[in-house]
Amino acid sequence: MQNELRVSLLGALAATVAGQELTLGPPRQRAVLAVLALRANHVVSRSELIDAVWGDEPPASADNGIHTYVAGLRRLFEPGRASRAPSSVLLSTDTGYLLRLPADANDVAMFRAHLDEAGRLRREPAAAIRAFDAALGLWRGVALEGVPGPFAAVERARLTELRLTAVEQRAALMLSVGREAEVAAELTTLINAHPLRERLHGLLMSALYRGGRQAEALAVFADLRRLLVEELGIEPGPELRQLHEQLLVGRHEPQPEPVAPALVPVQLPHEIRDFTGRAKELAKLAEVVPHDHNPALVAITGTGGVGKTALAVRFAHQVAERFPDGQLHVDLRGFDASSPPVQPAAALHQLLQSLGVPPERIPEDLPAKSALYRSVLAGKRVLVLLDNARLAEQVRPLLPGRSSSMVLVTSRNHLGGLVARDGAHPVTLSTLTRDEALALLTSAVGPDRVAAEPEAAARLVELCGHLPLAVRIAAERVVTRPHLTLADLAGDLADERDRLNVLATGDDEDTAVRAAFSWSYLALKPDAARMFRLIGLHPGAEISLAAAAALAGVPSSRARTLLDVLAGGHMLEEVARGRFRLHDLLRLYATELSATEESGPGRSEAVTRLLRWYADTANAAGLAISPPDHPAFLLPPLSTQDFTSHDDAFGWCRAESANLLAVTRLAEDAHSSTAWQIPVALWNYFIVSSALDEWTRTYRVAERAAAVDGNQAARAWAVHGLGLAACRGQRFADALELFDRALALRRDIDDRVGAAWSLTGLGMAYGGLRQFDLAVDRFRLALDQHAAVGSWFGEGGTRLFLSDILRSACQFEASLASARMAYDLMDSHGAVHGKAMALVSIGRAQLRLGARAEARDSFRTAVEALRVLGDRKSLAEALHGLGETSSGQPEVARTHLLEALTIYEDYDHPLTAEVRARLHELA
User: Fold this and answer.
1) How far is it, in rounded angstroms, from Cα 239 to Cα 255?
2) Contact, 413 vs 391, CB < 8 A?
3) Which of 464, 623, 720, 732 has the most other CB atoms within 10 Å of its CB?
4) How far apart are CA 106 and CA 35, in angstroms?
5) Which of 542, 697, 638, 645 is nearest to 868 (CA)?
6) Which helix (H) or strand (E) holds 876?
7) What would the pLDDT profile of 156-167 be if each residue is shown by its tens digit?
8) Contacts of 650 (CB under 8 A, 6+ apart)
9) Inter-axis angle of helices 812-828 and 832-848, nearest 10
């Protein structure tokens, strides 16, 4: 929709919408409008607005006041806008506000445009005079009349000076074409308002003299001289005295046009008042400041709201004195939703004008502009801040040649090309540390409030993800709502569904954190934007390349390309090869987008693809992990074979461990059978690992899902798995109850194979409770049941468990006999892994019987087999035994125990402390 707002500043401040004049409200609201209009289409930070309106001593309510005034202006500009709809005129950004205002809707911009046109037409006096007439005709009185605040006062003086200079230049041109009478009439009135301005007096003297009024011209000089001497105690300047002498002798040369003094550009934005942290980054930037004639280039990159511009501005102010030839600033608007990125040619035009190059000397084509820019900077020390760049190509033409200048570039993209090709020093900003985030919160809300609620303060910055923008917005909510405690706000932020809404800037309908992210998102191409949205459907903290490919339904190579685009734009981070993580708030934003921009069927299909991939991959991993105790008969046929070894499969499970519970819950919410298939597929992983919490929680979901699915066999396996987890966690009473439940379920469906395993579980639970008679009884029943169903593996496994219980009961001969029977069973069926496990049990029993040499041989043979099989956990147990049987050779024992300890620590094995203590003894 076309912007119908018009703002007039060259007189009393006024604004119209669709031709209707607006009542602009209280004086300070008018002051806010004046700042935004004079900086139209550029971001004005909140701190700049506060300084502009109140100066150096703003009240405590200043932040709240700015929000109130902005909200009031929005209501005036867009009275029909819905309360939660984003503004299309007065936009919020991550650092402040931007008023969208075309040049032809702003009389100051039009004034400057007419002046530029007059400058280009100086060789055509008549045309140049018309351009000056158009510029001066825009004035309606004193600029910004009635607008309070220091900014308005400075701008009022600046604009007045521009107006007077334009009047003087116009008068000089009119004299050159013989219009002396008009000049004399106009300036006679004007010098009464500016009685000490020598240039006006000189032009009036020339006009009067050329009109044949020499005496009046000399009287003008005499009056001015008297006033200067009386008021200021000084004589007129040399130019005016020279003109006076020429008039006295009747010789008058043409009056030269005024020459503007050479100004050193000082354009750095205002610093954030409560800048916190970043000491390491500031030190790195300080190291890069050039000391010779080679320019320095720095690329400061990071996600939206992380504080890139704040850091660049902070550093630029710190080193500004080291760049005496000026400090330049250009907002390249690389991610501005309201306007396209600034093109290099336009940026160069702005930079060259700032460096004092007249507009008519600036060439049209880009290479010539860039060459002139390098020539102007040659030999100078200038600091150039190129803010919000999008691409390296946008920056390259703006880089100086041989000089001692420094260029700071900020961007949400990595700008790897600038680093690789142009030698930029990369500074990648991550979120603040916990201490830095707390310091920022303390600086913003005051130390007393943080000291009164330290735990709530820590929780608050954690929920903000330590993102500076989010912490600032949270602090603003607390400061502007004195009744709101830190604990209250932390409670509000705890609800993920509403967190981005809570992190809005008070009355500002454009939620700041969401807006900051949206600029990066809107810059993405459709495929990358879709990938970002779909990642919001993934329930975990990290996502793998393969999972992302499944989610999006694209080949891995295409997924890699899209994820690289997102990582390059700091929309996500590659934390390990092929594994990616979103910042907590970006994850919420992606989830929000998936709900609003993806269709319901599209979301369902993506989730189905993801869950199917997890189920298939978990199944493949479970089959590759030793020992081979995988209930594959419950699962769909294997459709993928991604793993070639135990270590590969176990590594995948370990990497995905943080996601497993979230994925199974997602499957449960989607009423998918994968909610029980994924946990059951990971049976071997949970048996081998010590991830008891994940095991328990995941299998509880599996039990519920199998019950809903009507699959009692799967439900029984889930309950049985919970019993094994309870045993591993030394919760033997709970295990007893769970194995009993599993047995009942299996008997109800006549699952005799499963019932045999439930009896084995009961034996393990009774053994853990040291009720050895009951344990042996259940094991005997289990052995009979395994034999009846023809399960040699079940019989062999049960005899190994029985061997362990008999050894705990100090029945070492019986333990050894049971282990040997298990070995014979495994050997007769060619079960290499089962034989190795039996050898470990044999060695343990032999060691307790004092047969150290035989035990060492058993452990050594088991180690050899397990190294080939790749079962590292069982290998560590065999190495542990080998170390214990080598105590007569301390160095040999130490070698074996150290290797066992390394593996135990990887698996969080319960015997880790025992091995560590044994090594201490050997030392």
Assistant:
1) 10
2) yes
3) 464
4) 12
5) 645
6) helix 872-884
7) 877 887 788 888
8) 621, 625, 685, 688, 689, 872
9) 160
For the stretch 594-609, what's the b/e string if a residue is b when 16 or more beta carbons lie within 10 angstroms of its beta carbon?
Answer: beeebeeeebeebbeb
CB 823 within 8 A of CB 799: no
**Number of C-beta neighbours around residue 130 at 10 A:** 16
DSSP 594: H
Say how many Å lie between the first and final Cα of the chain, rounded. 80
- Those residues whose C-beta lies under 8 Å from the C-beta of residue 108, and which sit 6 or more positions away, are 9, 10, 37, 38, 159
Structure tokens at 733: 């009473």
Task: Note the pLDDT of residue 90.
Answer: 86
Q: Alpha-carbon torsion 499, 500, 505, 506, what sign?
A: negative
- pLDDT band of residue 254 (cuts 50, 70, 90) is very low
CB 399 within 8 A of CB 295: yes
∠ CA 83-88-92, rounded to 5°: 80
Residue 565 corresponds to which amino acid?
A: V
Q: With H, G, I as helix, E, B as strand and everything else as coil, classify residue 865.
A: helix
pLDDT in tens, 171-184: 988 888 888 898 88
- The full length of the chain comes to 923
Transcribe 125-192 into DSSP letters: HHHHHHHHHHHHTT--SSTTBT--SHHHHHHHHHHHHHHHHHHHHHHHHHHHTT-HHHHHHHHHHHHH
pLDDT range class, residue 256, cuts 50, 70, 90: very low
The strand pair at 96-99 and 90-92 is best described as antiparallel
pTM of the model: 0.59
SS3 854: helix
Q: Residue 6: in which H helix or E strand, if any?
A: strand 5-8
Residue 217 DSSP code: H
What is the average pLDDT value for the chain, to the nearest integer?
A: 85
What are the φ/ψ torsions at residue 50 (nearest 5 degrees)?
-60, -45
* Euclidean distance between CA atoms 135 and 295, whole angstroms: 40
* φ/ψ bin of 333: left (φ > 0), alpha (ψ from -120 to 50), beta (otherwise): left
From CA 247, how far away is CA 255, in angstroms rounded? 12
DSSP secondary structure string for all residues of 511-571: -HHHHHHHHHHHTS-HHHHHHHHHHTT--SSEEEHHHHHHHHT--HHHHHHHHHHHHHTTS
280, HSE (Cβ side, Cα atoms, 13 Å): 7
827: Cβ–Cβ under 8 A, 6 or more apart, which residues? 835
Could you identify the residue written with the tokens 């709240």? 64
**Residue 45 predicted with pLDDT over 90:** no
Rounded to the nearest 5 percent, the helix, strand and coil shares of the chain are 65, 5, 30
Q: State how far the Cα of 898 lies from the Cα of 121, in Å rounded to an integer.
A: 87
The answer to whether the bond into 269 is cis (omega within 30° of 0) is: no
Strand, helix or coil for residue 476: helix
Is the pLDDT at 508 greater than 60? The verdict is no
Residues 261-270, mean pLDDT to the nearest whole number: 73
DSSP category for residue 910? T
Give the number of C-alpha atoms closer than 13 A to the C-alpha of residue 633, restricted to the C-beta side.
6
Question: At a CB cut-off of 8 Å and minimum separation 6, what does 671 contact?
Answer: 708
